[in-house]
Amino acid sequence: MRTFLAAATLAAAVLPLAILVFVTLLALPLYNSFSFADLLTGHWDPMHRGYGIFPMMVTSFLLAVSSLAVAFPVSLGCAGLIYGLAPPVVAGLLKRLVQVMTGFPTVVYGFVGVFVLVPAVREVFQQGSGRCLLSALIPLSLMITPTMTLFFADAFTAIPREMLLGAAALGADPVQRFVLVVIPSAGRGLAAGTVLSFGRALGDTLIALMLAGNAAQVPSGFLESARTLTAHIALVIAADFQSLEFASIFLCGMVLYILTSCAALLAWKIRTSFGQGMS
Amino acid sequence: MIRRKLFVLCFLAFTACVLGMRLTAHADAYEVFKGLEGTLKISGGTAHIPVMQALAQEIMTRYPSIRISIAGGGSGVGIKQVGEGLVDIGNSGRKPTDEEVATYGLKVYCWAMDGVAAVVHPKNPVKSLTSQQLQDIFSGKILNWKEVGGPDQAIHVVTRDEASGTREVFWEKALQKGAIRKDADVVPSNGAMKTAVGTDPAAIGYMSVGYVDETVRALALDGVEAGVQTVLSGKYPVARGLYSNTKGEPSPLAKAFLDLLYTPEGQAVIAAKGYIPVAK
User: pTM (2 decimals)?
Assistant: First the structure.
């Protein structure tokens, strides 16, 4: 039994690493012709032998961070309402709604976005086709908010009652208790939820592919068409197997892999430091 | 009770009729594979794959002793592999050059045409563009529809992904290999192109003529309408043939397969996959 479990653990640990090795190896044809630094900082222009993925990296990062920036305060508020700031009936309903929303397939957001959001953004801002970062940002934030909210609400529930009672005894009203006691004590949960959502936002393909416009340029504003790493993979995957375009999607995969790993490590770091601070 | 029996009987008769019609309709074209066996290897152009796969599936279901393998690789790969005898049929989305035909002793079959039309929203008053105007629009020199006789409205250029054969034809023959502006939106398929252009009155894109319907309008290029007829007659230049090549005379199995592409059944499949069938 022990050996079996150990083998399972080893397999689980080796597989992700094997994937990293795999994507690195498949991107090899690119390193033969270009330096690694050029590929990461260069621009995408396959007609003139430009296989850099810099614009896609910037877009992916920008989109993930900005959707977190939108979703974080909203989720914090929603989680607070569910936790006890709202009357129990409202809180219950809100929680049910949020739970239902976590299961929405992203293609639904993408589809509604194509026919409703994109024309609306085009009409309101009168700049470009409406397929832009903003059009992807809105549904992406909407997509990650429910998971984040549930994570936050769980973190709040885990806070010891004694701390709240203590705060109440000192005369803190519910909002004060929430802002001054609950939020600061739920650091681990907040960090975990945020990182998880960052990973989801970074990894989502369909919303960006359908709504962000996919121009391989570094966007200079939220109304510009831009392409994420994931959308790039989806767009180029049909290219000839031997082509350098095809090899570049493995480079994208590698970058995505490393970015998400870094985020997870960061979360772990934050959690341990919070833990020390509390004890 | 009697009514019910009658109903069942009618239903059975109807089913038998339908089945019978299906069988007789197919029998003629696929009959040639009767008695043939062995493996047929096909590779090359990716545009050919949907058509060939549909036909191969039908053949292999009817005659299990025939195996057909279809690989991609691109036009260059198709010509090279058939020339070196690695496959029986090599597909290409371009006509093999005279040099290739001479070196390998290729026999060339053109069985479909694929035209690519510039498309706009049906409400757009612009009906025709010169190829110079088209190039300037896609390169970003012309930025407003009023410069080509439309309303005062910025042009939204939509293009296709790097792997698209449609993009390659359009870029080569309509844009004369000119630049495509960097900030153009990119969509992953002919279908997505139709949605993008059909929902945006200021958009311009391009797609296989097989996909054009009432939600978009194909533009005439230098006064020539883009349509099945003009592509077939060669008047509309932004088109390509879908070719299959064999090294010398094809084997009986390869010949039967290539012949199938010119029968009414084969042409129905070609049309169903969005291409224009060509007579032998």
Answer: 0.77
By C-alpha distance, which of B226, B239, B114 is closest to B172? B239
The token duo for B172 is: 């080569």
Task: Compute φ and ψ for B121, nearest 5 degrees.
Answer: -65, 145
Alpha helices in chain B (DSSP H): 2-30, 49-62, 75-83, 98-104, 131-139, 165-169, 190-198, 228-233, 252-260, 264-272
Kindly tell me the burial class for residue B46, based on how many C-beta atoms sit within 10 Å of its own C-beta (0-12, 13-18, 19 or more): buried
How many Å lie between the alpha carbon of A226 and the closest alpha carbon of chain B? 8
Q: How many CA atoms lie within 13 A of B87 on its CB side?
A: 22
Q: Residue A17 CB: number of other CB atoms within 10 A?
A: 9
Q: Residue B185: is its pLDDT beyond 80?
A: yes
Q: Which residues of B touch A114 (CB under 8 A)?
A: 195, 199
Q: What ipTM is given for this predicted complex?
A: 0.82
CB A102 within 8 A of CB A145: no
Structure tokens at A95: 């929680």
Pick the residue from chain A with its C-alpha nearest to B44: A240
In chain B, residues with a C-beta closer than 8 Å to the C-beta of A122 are 200
SS3 assignment, position A53: coil
Cα-based angle B87, B89, B92 (whole degrees, multiple of 5): 115
What is the structure's pLDDT at B249?
92
Give pLDDT, residue A48.
Answer: 81
Of the listed ranges A211-215, B20-24, B48-52, B232-236, the one predicted with least confidence: B20-24
- Report how far apart, in Å, the C-alpha atoms of B32 and of each of B59, B109, B255, B259, B280 are: 10, 19, 10, 9, 17
Task: List, as ranges, residues 224-243 from A with C-beta within 8 Å of B.
Answer: 224-225, 227, 234-242
Average pLDDT over residues A78-100: 91
Q: Are B238 and B216 in contact (CB under 8 A)?
A: no
- The nearest CA of chain B is from the CA of A62 a distance in Å of 17
pLDDT tens track for A21-46: 988 888 888 888 888 888 888 888 88
Rounded (5°) CA angle A124-B145-A213: 50
- DSSP state for residue B154 in the 8-state scheme: B
B24-33, B69-78, B222-231, range with the lowest pLDDT: B24-33
Measured distance CA(A103)–CA(A116) in Å, rounded: 21
Q: Which residues of A touch B183 (CB under 8 A)?
A: 128, 215, 217, 224-225
Q: Is the dihedral of CA B257, B258, B259, B262 positive or negative?
A: positive
